[in-house]
Amino acid sequence: MLQAIIKVTFLEGLRNKAVYGISLMAGLMMIFTVVLSGMIMRDVGKVATDFALSTATFAALLVVLFVGIIILARDLERKTIYLALSRSVPRSNYLVARFLGLGLLQGFVMLLLLVASLITLVLVKNMYARYFGAVSLGLVAVAHLFVFVQMLLLTALSILFSMVASSPFVTFILTILTWLIGSSTQEVKLLIESAGSDKFFPVVKILVTLAYYLFPNFALFDLKATAAHGLTLHAGKAGFALLYGLGYSVAVLSLALVLFKRKELT
Amino acid sequence: MIIFEDVCKTFQLERGKKVSAVQCLSLVVASGEVFGCIGPNGAGKSTTIKLLLDLIRPDSGTITINSLPSRDNASRARVGYLPENPCQYDFLTAHEYLAYSGNLSGLSSSIIAERSSLLLEKLKLSQAANRRISGYSKGMQQRTAIAAALIHNPDLVVLDEPMSGLDPLGRKLIFDLIAELKEQGKTVFISSHVLTDIERLCDRVGIIVQGRLCHEGQVSDLTMPLEELFLQVVADTGLDEVK
């Protein structure tokens, strides 16, 4: 029965027009990357990699926000959830299967984005081989895997928010805020720590430290610079980031399960 | 067999207000019985059904399905449910939706294929079975939902307003289907506003008003038409709408 729910979730995403729109936008951005590469004089590879990875991250984020959240919200609002829960399907299985279905959809989209990114970068490399630099295509692929794990975590968070939020819009806002805060806390914390202690009010320091530990650290999954400069990716660091992402997702999903089991489906 | 024992459910409204949706409901529906649950809008019929299926939880009291507490997922293994105003995954075809419904109950592909053909044929949906549900009329969607509720040949069928949105032909189809379920010895719990159908199909009827079961009895024992009895019971409760 888990497979049935996973399959339906995947199909729902795949047959959602928003996915086509997001794919089209990503495709156009990749074409723009090729065009843009012809307008810059140096570090062509770095800029193209940066653009391709940013496009992939943005497209994947849109899938979470405009497909994942909508799928779950619609299920609760339109009561389509009743069919499964009026049978012997445990609520925990239902939610986990929904998450896995969304993960499968996200994985499929990431695979398409990876292919598009690699085609774009190979094209740029062939067109501007002399200025391409030390970009590692292997690391570009790994960077996509990291974006995928990052989006799994964000999906788990959006599921948690949908358990407490009064409307899909609130879930959307909470998810995007978490994304924005989680993507920037590491940088802000470093900035505050590197600056002199008299530059910031103590309350700002406390707030930033609190946000750093309270929100997931999405910066851990950002491999743009590593891939663009062809730097070495340390296995320990990479392994930690992946375990952090998966562990955090499991923890968030577990909390969502507790809330879902108590939720009244009126 | 379904047993409700002193079941109460209160909903919290805005600004701390509360509304009692179901009050001390005690009811037994025997196996093989067709039970009709009627009442004015907002009386607590759908809430009773949702409590039975563990979609919402009672504040107090217990509900059992075939001796298992309704909180136990296993109690619903042989239950088919048609919600009020059902919505399906409209991006699926009827075939895909029935396959999904069958898979939820762990049916094999061959049984799903066999049961789907049978139900789609009975409900006159065979021709449209490979079209997406989003293109169906309301009546067709209602019939698809009924087929999905029956795909696993459940022993207990819970129907919340099964005639809603159906044209006379659709109503006849569903009426015949419920009559067939009755002949097969299934337990059926129907909530409906179509009193003539309830009168013709059900063995027993219960009238719920403002969350209370105000009347319960065999249809064969009725001394007046059900509609008349319904109006009288509702009027006796002092509900303004009927006065």
TrEMBL record, chain A:
The keyword Transmembrane helix applies. Coiled coil: none annotated. Keywords: Membrane, Transmembrane, Transmembrane helix. The keyword Membrane applies. GO terms for molecular function: ABC-type transporter activity. It comes from the Bacteria. GO terms for cellular component: plasma membrane. The chain crosses the membrane at residues 18-39, 51-74, 94-124, 131-153, 159-182, 241-260. This is ABC-2 family transporter protein.
From TrEMBL, chain B:
PROSITE patterns: ABC_TRANSPORTER_2 (PS50893). It holds the Pfam family ABC_tran. Residues 2-235 form the ABC transporter domain. Coiled coil: none annotated. GO terms for molecular function: ATP binding; ATP hydrolysis activity. InterPro entries: AAA+_ATPase (IPR003593), ABC_transporter-like_ATP-bd (IPR003439), ABC_Transporter_VariousFunc (IPR051782), P-loop_NTPase (IPR027417). The keyword tRNA processing does not apply. Keywords: ATP-binding, Nucleotide-binding, Transport. This is ABC-2 type transport system ATP-binding protein. It comes from Trichlorobacter thiogenes.
